[in-house]
Amino acid sequence: MRDGAIRRKFTQIFALTIDRERATSTTIVIIDRYLISEILQTMLAVLLVLLLIFMGRYFALFLSYAVDGDITASVVVDLLILRTVSAFNMIVPFALYVAVLISFGRLYKDNEMTALAASGVSITRVNYTIMAMGLFFALLVAVIALWVSPWTEDKQKLMEIEAGKASIVESLSPGQFNQFSKRKDAVFYVGAIAEDRKSFKNVFLQLELDKKLDVYSADHGYIHRDEETGDRYLVLVNGYRYLGNPGEQDFLIQEYEKNAVRLALPKIGQHTRAKSAVPTSQLLENGQPKDMAELQWRISMPISALLLAMLGLVISRTSPRQGRFAKLFVAILVYVIYNNLISVARSWVEQNKVPVEVGVWWVHLLLVVIIVLLLQQQITGRWFKLRSS
Predict the structure, then answer these.
(1) b/e string for 204-224 if b means 16 or more Cβ within 10 A?
(2) 55 Cβ contact partners less than 8 Å away, ≥ 6 residues apart
(3) Phi-psi bin for 351: left (phi > 0), alpha (psi -120 to 50), beta?
(4) Cβ contact 367:345 at 8 Å
């Protein structure tokens, strides 16, 4: 009888222990979901504000290109989308950083962090949650920085070139004198334009060649694109050419059946492929200092997403009287210094002033040391001290 009672008692204690473990596990899951939800909501708001600022700036920039005739208005939205996607690798880490800072600033202000600590949820346990969340966004940023962003950069440049070429004729208005290819010395006039905008009637073109007027007139004309070079030509049919200044002896009048004039491209199409548009695999194959600097810059983006999330947690600790935005200015200042140091380290690698092995990694290592010191101070209540012999 006694053995049976003891056995039942141990069974009850074991069952109670399991229930407590299950309750503790359930509580931790609920707390993790609460913290992640709080950060994601704040991050979404911060990300929306950053995107509005970023897109507003570049929308005005691309719109000015369209007004000047550098690109066609039809591609402004496409270029804006590509530019925004390529910038996500820098926007997401900063948005996560600010979101963690503001969210935990509110939790400290409302004494929720104190309540969590009283219920057995330590700052170390919260660190694991933020680290897991930072790893998730780091993987997302890695995909964007290493593959998506170079593709969008390359796509954007190609689209700008094609839009710049198309804008030469698409910006023309029939029955009006038009500025041609942003040249002040060039005037273009057409009486009518076909629906495909590739052929014209009653064409007049005035250029300046060696301080002499070069004037063309033709019954009609059309646009021809050279398949080898990609250059576009205005082909004039059945017209006259007037070369020289009126009243001078070398004034020349020519009649022609067909004449071709090369169309000068706008400035936006005159560029080479930037390093930011080179595929990551090609950077690895080249291995030059500039290629390695670009590669390390791309890898720095996901690393910064993780480190900034942890930094936002340790900086956010405040007293209830300070408020949730008490550390925001300091946090922004730290971010600016950190980001500028990465840029400086990147330029040093490009100029071959530091070895590629050192690269930009010392900047991340410096931030890791700062985070560890701050975590040590928060967990133990004191800084690292050297032991006296």
Answers:
(1) bbbbeeeebebbbbbebbbbe
(2) 80, 84
(3) alpha
(4) no
108 contacts 326 by C-beta, under 8 angstroms: no
| Contacts of 180-186 spanning 24+ positions with Cβ under 8 A | 180/205, 181/69, 181/263, 181/264, 181/265, 181/266, 182/68, 182/69, 182/70, 182/266, 182/267, 183/207, 183/264
Contacts of 220-224 with C-beta under 8 Å, sequence gap 24+, read 221/190, 222/198, 223/169, 223/198, 223/199, 223/263, 224/260
Residue 110 tokens, joined: 């409302």
**Predicted confidence pLDDT, tens digits, the chain (389 residues):** 455 554 454 344 344 444 444 446 677 778 888 899 999 999 999 999 999 999 999 999 988 887 766 777 778 899 999 999 999 999 999 999 999 999 998 888 888 887 877 777 777 788 889 999 999 999 999 999 999 999 999 888 888 777 666 656 666 667 777 765 555 567 878 888 877 767 888 888 888 777 788 888 899 888 787 777 767 788 889 999 888 887 777 788 888 889 888 776 555 544 456 788 899 999 988 889 999 999 999 999 999 999 999 999 999 887 767 666 678 888 999 999 999 999 999 999 999 999 999 999 999 999 999 999 988 887 776 655 544 44
The Cα–Cα gap between 182 and 67 comes to 11
- Both structure tokens of 193: 């334009």
3-state secondary structure of 214: strand
Locate 306 and state its tokens: 């993780």
Residue 312, token pair as written in the block = 């936002």
Three-class HEC string of 93-139: HHHHHHHHHHHHHHHHHCCHHHHHHHCCCCHHHHHHHHHHHHHHHHH
